[in-house]
C-alpha cells in the first residue's frame, strides 16, 4: 500500500540547491530588484516538491508556532513557522540564495548611506543574528482559503533584518485557487504610493525588498519604503513558503 506523500518530509533537491539557484541570470534579477523592488525566479521548485512542502502543513512536528492572522489584525489566513533543523529542501535553498542577494543588499546600503554590510555566506549572517539574541528560525508555510488575505506588512523580527526575502508559490493559480495575487507597494517621498502585482505560477519564487530600497532620482538616490501582502483568495486553497534570511528574537 502506498503511503500518502504528506507523511514524509520533502525529498532532497534532485538538482543541488547551489546549482539550481546559480543557473538564474542574477544580473537581470539584480536589475529587476533595483528597478521594481522584486524579481521572479521561475520554476525554482518542481510541482512534486511544491506538493510535498504543502503537505507538511498539517504535521505539527515540523513547526515551532502556529499563527492565526485574524487574531493579530494581520488579515485572514494562517501560517506556521518551521523549527530548526529546517527541511533539507528549504535549508538548502536558504543557504544557496543568500550569497546572490547579499551583494545586492550591500549595494543598496551603500547607496542609502547605511554603514551595515552583510557577510558573503549565510552561516556568518546567522551567527550575527544569534549573537544579537535572534535565534528563532523565520522560514514559514502559509495557508489561505476563500476569503483569506494578508495585509500589507514588513517581516522585521529584531535589530538585524536582511533587506530581501523570497516567497515561493506552492499552489497552481486557476487550478488550486483563484485570486490571491502577491502584491508589493512602494511608498515614495512626497509622491503617491506605487503598487506592483506579481504574477506567479506554481514553483515560481519572487525575491523582493523587505523594508527599504534605494531609487535613483535626478538628485541622487532616495529611500523608498516597501510593504507586501496577498490579495483576497476567491476560491480553493493557496500555499506559499516564505524564506526569510534573518532569525527572530
Features:
disordered N terminus, Proline hydroxylase, 7-stranded antiparallel β-sheet, iron, Jelly Rolls, Oxoglu/Fe-dep_dioxygenase_dom, 6-stranded antiparallel β-sheet, 249 residues, 32% strand, oxidoreductase, alpha+beta, globular, 15 strands, metal-binding, 24% helix, 5 helices
What does the secondary structure layout of this molecule look like, with pairings?
Elements: H1 17-22, H2 26-36, E1 38-41, H3 47-54, E2 63-68, E3 75-76, E4 78-82, H4 88-111, H5 122-131, E5 140-144, E6 149-153, E7 164-169, E8 177-179, E9 182-187, E10 194-198, E11 205-209, E12 212-217, E13 220-230, E14 233-236, E15 238-243
Antiparallel strand pairs: 1-11, 2-4, 3-6, 4-5, 5-15, 6-13, 7-11, 7-15, 8-14, 9-10, 9-13, 12-13
Amino acid at each position: 500500500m502506498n503511503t500518502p506523500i504528506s507523511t514524509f518530509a520533502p525529498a532532497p533537491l534532485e538538482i543541488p540547491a547551489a546549482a539550481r539557484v546559480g543557473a538564474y541570470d542574477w544580473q537581470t534579477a539584480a536589475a529587476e530588484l533595483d528597478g521594481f523592488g522584486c524579481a521572479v525566479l521561475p520554476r525554482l521548485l518542481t510541482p512534486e516538491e511544491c506538493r510535498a512542502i504543502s503537505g507538511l502543513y498539517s504535521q505539527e512536528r515540523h513547526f515551532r508556532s502556529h499563527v492565526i492572522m485574524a487574531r493579530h489584525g494581520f488579515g485572514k489566513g494562517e501560517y506556521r513557522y518551521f523549527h530548526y533543523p529546517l527541511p533539507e529542501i528549504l535549508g538548502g535553498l536558504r543557504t544557496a540564495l543568500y550569497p546572490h542577494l547579499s551583494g545586492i543588499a550591500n549595494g543598496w546600503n551603500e547607496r542609502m548611506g547605511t554603514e551595515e554590510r552583510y557577510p558573503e555566506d549565510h552561516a556568518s549572517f546567522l551567527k550575527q543574528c544569534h549573537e544579537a539574541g535572534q535565534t528563532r528560525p523565520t522560514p514559514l508555510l502559509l495557508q489561505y482559503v476563500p476569503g483569506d488575505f494578508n495585509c500589507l506588512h514588513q517581516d522585521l523580527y529584531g535589530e538585524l533584518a536582511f533587506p530581501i526575502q523570497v516567497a515561493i508559490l506552492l499552489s497552481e493559480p486557476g487550478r488550486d485557487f483563484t485570486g490571491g495575487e502577491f502584491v508589493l507597494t512602494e511608498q515614495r517621498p512626497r509622491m503617491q504610493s506605487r503598487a506592483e502585482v506579481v504574477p506567479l505560477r506554481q514553483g515560481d519564487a519572487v525575491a523582493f525588498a523587505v523594508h527599504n530600497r534605494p531609487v535613483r532620482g535626478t538628485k541622487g538616490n532616495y529611500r523608498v519604503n516597501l510593504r507586501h501582502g496577498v490579495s483576497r483568495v476567491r476560491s480553493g486553497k493557496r500555499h506559499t513558503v516564505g524564506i526569510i534570511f534573518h532569525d527572530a528574537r
